[in-house]
Structures are given as C-alpha cells and as structure tokens.
Amino acid sequence: MIQNQFQSCIQACYECAQACDTCAAACLQEPDPKMMARCIELDNECAAICRLAAQLMSRSTEHAIQVCQLCADICEACGDECAQHQAQHCQDCAAACRRCAQECRNMSQSAAGAASMSGSQIGSH
Description:
The chain is mainly α. The chain has a domain at 30-110: Substrate Binding Domain Of Dnak, Chain:A, Domain 2 (Up-down Bundle), CATH 1.20.1270. The chain has helices spanning 2-5, 7-27, 37-59, 64-83, 88-118. It is elongated and about 50 Å long.
C-alpha cells in the first residue's frame, strides 16, 4: 500500500495541522491579537493544506505530489512567521511546520522519482 510508504508524512501533516490550530486559537488570546494577524492567517492556511495533503496521500491520488509540494511551501512560510514570536505555542508550531515541510519535500522527491521510474504518478487512473 502506497500510503504506508508515506505514513510518516501523513502523520507529520496531521500533527502540523493540530499545532497550527492550537497556535491560531492561542494567538487570539494574546494581549494584542491584531499583532498576530499574519500568524493566525498562515496557521489557518497551513492547517487546511496539511489536512488536504494527508487525505490525498491516504487515498493515493495522482495529485498528492503537487499538493505536498505546495504544503511544504506553506508550512515553511508558517514556520518562519511563527518562529518570529516568542510565545511557546508559536515556537511549537514553527517546529511542527518545519518537520512537516521536510516530510512533504521528502515525499514529493521520492514519489516523483518512483513515478518517473514507473512512468506513472501515484494512484494514476
């Protein structure tokens, strides 16, 4: 089963989504939530793309590679933003985002390599 091959990436995506949800909720409780607007925005985007990437990998769809590449980019942006804030929830989120970005890059590279060797995308019709 191909999703077993990407289980660590799927897990990292779900963990990142949860960290982003926690961070966004905690940012809203900060003394000046307006100062956290960019962080909250990226947390929400990151959580959404992480869940989508995990779902597509679980279903072995042909678009999982491209979504994981985008997920890595959004995770990196979110991680960079969160790392700028001292709050522990932001630091925890930044770490989860960086792990997920690396897992998604690894997945994309290994899946793309396998697809080019076999002449097909994962889960092609």
